[in-house]
Automatic annotation (TrEMBL):
GO terms for biological process: regulation of cell shape. It comes from the Bacteria. The keyword Ion transport does not apply. The lineage of its organism: Bacteria, Bacillati, Actinomycetota, Actinomycetes, Kitasatosporales. This is Cell shape-determining protein MreC. InterPro entries: Cell/Rod_1, Cell/Rod_MreC_2, MreC, MreC_beta-barrel_core. Belongs to the MreC family. Residues 316-332 have a biased composition (Basic and acidic residues). Keywords: Cell shape. Residues 130-270 form the Rod shape-determining protein MreC beta-barrel core domain.
Length: 356
């Protein structure tokens, strides 16, 4: 269609008619005079619309499926993240239970020793601070932590505080070669000095070269002047090896520490020392020894002059033993009316012949 004056006039006329019909339809409401024309148009063009919709529905469904697949993928991703968070929470629950056990054990030790402690968590190891065996805890000067305070956990001695910041502190572990602590032996009260040896047992130099030490003896901290850096009575470890004295003035023993320095988590800093030395009250109870069964062998003379051995069950009740002895005595009296028990001949018993 050419762009002429007539075509422009026709376009303007059609637009004006359209606006007029729209105005009449809006003002008429439900009784619009064009409602009949609208219904007639719907009856004519409705089937056409249905046919076109049927033809294009597969395309629309495909597009919707693609869109829905994206939504399902996003939903799966959300579920996977939720499952990962749930697993992490379950794992943290296991860790929390372990930490509760550690805290409970540490609080019991603090109560036994009358230590006032500030709980803390190990948040870093000392690799960044050099080659020393150190850890960083999340408690500092704002928590009342000071330099040269004793650090322990639910097992025993951990170390001492060496550096204090506002919210963190550095702890030198007891297995560090630069770490030394005075010790006292549980059974004999022998004094000595324990020094760290890394991942090896602690080396303890006893002041008494003639001290009697045996494997399994236990040591606690002796304590320092003004209770710094060490308070008394903190469990240190058990003797695992004793070197011969060799006549020296001192004696060396090796002690396995109670604390596992590679698995530290919850620790306590002693911020208040006990009023009196707890001595051995903080040491864990010794395991009860397993009783060793014993077998009783009884040798009694037999009626034919030989020797008979009887093996008794371990720890037989006295009543059963008395009954067995009475039965044996009755048998001997029946065989020897005179009441005399025949004497066993060791030669006959050994060769199986009687002397005539």
């Amino acid at each position: 269609m050419r762009d002429t004056k007539e075509s422009r006039l026709l376009l303007v006329l059609l637009i004006a008619i359209a606006f007029a019909l729209i105005t009449v339809d809006i003002r008429g409401g439900e009784e619009s005079p064009v409602d009949g024309a609208r219904q007639a148009a719907a009856a004519v063009f409705g089937p056409v619309e249905n046919g076109v919709a049927s033809a294009v529905d597969p395309v629309g469904n495909a597009i919707g499926a693609i869109r829905d697949s994206g939504e399902r993928h996003d939903r799966i991703s959300v579920l996977e993240r939720e499952n990962a968070a749930l697993k992490a929470r379950l794992g943290s629950d296991d860790r929390n239970r372990s930490r509760i056990r550690q805290l409970d054990s540490m609080l019991k030790k603090a109560a036994n020793g009358q230590y006032g402690i500030k709980g803390a968590e190990v948040i870093a190891i000392g690799a960044a601070q050099g080659f020393s065996w150190t850890v960083t805890i999340d408690a500092g000067s704002v928590d009342g932590i000071q330099r040269d305070m004793t650090v322990l956990n639910g097992d025993g001695l951990v170390g001492r505080v060496t550096t204090v910041g506002p919210t963190t502190s550095t702890v030198l572990l007891a297995n560090d070669p630069d770490f030394t602590v005075g010790t006292r032996m549980e059974r004999t009260d022998e004094l000595g000095f324990a020094t760290g040896q890394g991942d090896q047992p602690l080396s303890v130099q006893l002041l008494n070269g003639k001290a009697k030490v045996r494997k399994g003896d236990r040591l606690v901290t002796f304590g320092s002047q003004a209770d710094k850096p060490f308070v008394p009575g903190v469990p240190v470890g058990e003797v695992v090896r004793v070197d011969p004295s060799g006549g020296a003035l001192t004696r060396n023993v090796f002690v396995r520490p109670y604390a596992a320095f590679s698995k530290l988590d919850i620790v306590g800093v002693v911020v208040q020392a006990p009023r009196t030395d707890p001595r051995d009250a903080v040491l864990p109870p010794r395991p009860k020894p397993t009783p060793t069964p014993t077998v009783t062998v009884t040798v009694t003379p037999s009626a034919d002059g030989g020797v008979r051995a009887q093996t008794g069950a371990p720890e037989q009740p006295d009543r059963e033993q008395d009954r067995d002895r009475e039965q044996q005595r009755d048998q001997d009296q029946d065989q020897d009316p005179g009441g005399q028990t025949p004497r066993a001949d060791s030669t006959a018993a050994a060769t199986g012949r009687d002397d005539e």
